[in-house]
Amino acid sequence: MRRATLHPPRTGRTCAETRLPSPDSISVQRAAGAVLRALKRHGAPANRLTRAARAEPLRPSLAIEALLAAMRAQFGLPEPAADELLRPALADWRDAVGCTDPLLVPADAVGPTGEKHLPSWCAPLVDAGVVHLDGPAAVDGPRIVQAAWLAVVRESELTAVECFPLVFAGRYGSGAASLRIHLALSPPFLSPGWRGSVCLRAGAQRLDGSRTPVRLWLGSPASPGSPSCGVAGEGAVTWSMPRGASCVVADWPEGWQRWAVLRVREGREPQSLWDLPALWRARTGSAPEAGLATPVSAAAGTLRLAVDIGSTSTVVVEEDSAAAGAVGAKLLPQGAHRPTPSGFRRLGGEAATAHQVGCAEHLLAPGGQLPTALAAPAAAALTDLLAGSPEAVDQLWLPQAAGAEDGGGPLLIDRFKSPDLLLLSDWLAQVPAAAADRAYVSRTLLEAFAYHLGRTLALAHAVPLAAPEGGRWTLRRPRLASAEALLTYPECAFDSAATQPFSAVYERAAAELCRGLEAAWESAAHRLVADPAAARAARGRTRDDRHSIETYVDFGGLTLQVTVHVPHSGGRPAPFIPGTSSSFLLGGERLIDAAAFAAADRESRGALRDAYRATARRWRGLIASGGRLHGPEADRHRAVADAVLDIVLELVRRQLEGTLRRAAPDLTALRGAGVRLYLLGEGWKLVAMDVDDELREAETLRRIEERLQQAPLLIAAPLQLQRMTKRRVCEGALRVRAGDAPADPALELQGVDVASGDELRQRWFGLADAASAADPDVLPHREDAWWRRFASGSDSLLRVEQWFSGPPSTSPFQTGLLGGNLAFDARRPVLKQWIDVSGPSLVALRMREKLQAVPTER
Fold first, then answer.
1. Confidence (pTM)
2. Theoretical Cys-Cys bridge with 797: which of 231, 633, 647, 841, CB 3.0 to 4.6 Å?
3. How many CB atoms lie within 10 A of CB 854?
């Protein structure tokens, strides 16, 4: 019995080879043939175009007249218009039809079968079957030579096609030889069911390593019948190709563009004409995935996915249904050690440097997490996005994985989750206009990031399914029916001014996420889930019901949010309040600044500013790309970690005690209850930066447990600690159903005794009243013992912006970072206002004090 062999799909040919001439094509061929009627010799039959049949090429002057006649018939142009628009592009070079415009021949040719070195307006003649290209172009000294055939009908009543050889030639720009060109197509598969935009991205780099961006234009070929469409940019450009009628090409989706033109907008502006189906076949070869996925899967697929957008990283958990059909693939499958696809198929250029211009095939996803960042070829692309340009969002992309170690790369746009976080980014200095309205910039970048994330997810889900059927590989498009996106959000204000909550901002970002998903899915809906609700749903099962007081501590990049939920146990009085919540501008990014500030003052007091920036960048680089502290920095880190845990857990303890004091003053309703502490956010990992990445999570939890044993949150109250990673929070969000969120809004405690003058006005466990008058006379009461110990008796400390406002030769720690008097708004919690202003300086002071006990390296 013979074993069946699976055959790959047959490689398709160009439209000139696969389709019969249409009536319109015959009229165009007859117009070109009318010019050649006086020619004595006969042409070769269309089915016998061999190298031996290539006789003496047509005289260039005669070939030019035939080409112009064909174009006049193709587009119905009068002769004067054709002479004005088309004739200047061709020249009689005696041995060839010369292209007057310089041609783009980069140092690394994109593909010999895909690059067509002839005027771009000749592309319609190739589609019409008038011009047949004979093999790839060849370099002949300073010229590029392209052999071709001119297919004409010389008889007025017959349709016999004769083919005459001709030669195109052109000179390539000398400057183009010093460029490296990249080209990529999205989606990375051929599917007529793709609903989203079809994007072609081209990038250029200089071989000399110069950072001067190359000015480019990418678009459709010139045509007298319609204006060419395209996009201009620097470094890299992305063209969202319009759908419409195009030449019928075998194994190429109907409506997709066949031709593309790249022009370098420097010097004489050399350009290159690309045949995209030929480039695709040259890149993919005979792999089954290279074919056209026409059949559709019978069973419809559904998907639910949860997204947690953090300050520095984003996690996605995708959950398909066992009772529905299959999706193509998942973008970030848990436990699958494979590269994360970028949604682009590289058609040309080196893989090692493709990520610098957005043409790489894999995303940067360390540890299965995507950086919360966007990449742009230049600052101009970001400026266009902020100006509201409709095409600007396509010019950005998610950060891609590097093919090799190098120092180059695109402009990385990160830390845009909130307006206050923007101030900690390095790219903001390159776009001065972005600092004018930071709330608008943050919202715009969040929405752009969500759209790109949704589109990349859709590209992964829509990957065709390859299956053996009938001895061949068959590609089937997954039938993607409906997707539901759950976006987790923090229950706090979007900015320090508390003008709007995060939920309002994330609502628009979730809509953009669904817009990206709808590129592949028939329908996509979204729902927001609060972080505490997601963490509660993701908690581990326990038989101990005593742990009923739930405390959620979300230690993020910018904020530290503490939320306490007080339950109502059956048979006991209901608590006076259901819970409280406080958000402090004291997240991981602020603590990195404080640690860098304290360490720089201790080690490099004479060069405080430079040492501070270098230390902060090094720490942020370790968090973004992985790694650990070494040497003296690792030895000093335990002191830094102790200071972080001291302040964070002190605020958690204060919030918990105040909530219980307010909810059940005599504690009868909560007698015997324990505390379940949920640790959310990536800021907790700052306490273990001196250990390797794979051990950091476990070491962080060990150090926190050790500290809580030394100083419990509540005396004699059992504690259960649960670490909620981003993935666990997302998994919990998938379990939260609509209507599960608590109906009562969380309340805010004052946190300290509030006084007006020397008179006590409100106790520290009192509630802030947003409807009260903005009394400017309130301040922390000096008799509050906890406050005196916590703030070391200072009215306020320096803001972060004031750290370097003094003389460079004087250490700001000499004055204790004192900030002087501070007025408070009575409508907002006083402790929160003080922490938002003075918190980083307080952390820096405590770190500086603990670092004094660590020996200095000499």
1. 0.88
2. 841
3. 15
